[in-house]
Amino acid sequence: MAEAGADRRVWLFGPRLDPGLFLGSALLSGLFVLLAPGLGIPDETPLWVWLVFVLGIDVAHVWSTLFRTYLDREELERHTFRYVAAPLLAWVAGVVLYREGGALFFWRTLAYLALFHFVRQQVGWMAIYARRSGAPAWVRRLDAAAIYAATLGPALWWHAHLPRPFSWFVEGDFVALPAWVGTLALGGHAAVLLAWVGVTLGRRVVRGVPLQPGAWSLMLATWLAWFGGIVLAESDLAFTVMNVTLHGVPYLALLFVYAKGRAAEEGGPVSWRAMGLGTFLLLLLALAFAEEFLWDALVWQERPEIFGALGVGLDPGALSLLVPLLAVPQATHYLLDAVIWRSAREPRLASRLGWAPAPSGGEAGTGAAVAPGTGHIAGA
Prior knowledge:
The chain is mainly α. The protein has one domain (17-378). It has 15 helices and 2 strands. It has a two-stranded antiparallel sheet with strand order 1-2. Strand 1 (369-370) and strand 2 form a beta hairpin.
């Protein structure tokens, strides 16, 4: 998927793919939301929209982490404890949260973990651009502050204007804050973003530092999706579509690029070498469908037209074990994403992503790799 000949200091995937994956995702999802009323699409997310955006993008991107972890025998053997402990820890912690705090406390904890994950993924993308361009530390800190402003400003405003027509997971999962917090958050968010724009343009004018179209695309996309999807949005449809598209589409691209890079290595998974994008997506869609079938059949029972009406009724004790179990893929994704993209312990990571030449022999490798869920950078 990475484009040949792309300047590695400017792009992650290529001059067409970078803007398409980031800004394109935000613009297309925003355009869809704007056109929805004229197309007769209701504010409450209709079934087909849920299938495309929630199941097809959000749930599928969670399962794509398998290509970095459990589907790679060498990786699994190297870090067996990590890959056994992560889902076990997620389930045990979930059961404790559910039983001790109740269902709402469980979902509230998961919602804040998800919010942290979504924010840090955007910080991580920006950190790649900054590090690869050789930006000084103070510029990288400003980049991170701008992403935090673009995401946390609208998120805090949301907390200060509850209830909204949408929620992250379930109604009431976010804690209400005073209205003045939201006003202050948006004021701070605007100030930091204006400072970022001013400094970035100033470095271009005064010092001739090239602008990075990919980084600008990412910043604008993040602001459009979070400010538009949270502050301007007045519907579940708008929030759902804009929230999951920007988060899931670039991550799916990252995992496909990684899988192909891993397969090209000597000793890489043979079954991945002939895998095309269609096969990659079909596998993830099948896993996402299976997960959502279990959720609907055993817990929600909201979409019988897709999953059937099994009429399974479980008592609270059973649900306290089952709900955390069904949440294990998502929670494990959050946990693992904080560690699996660190290149300090995996020198081949940057080369697999096409961001550096393949290391030779026992060399530590070069280039920068990042944890999209954490913004963690290693390498020079």
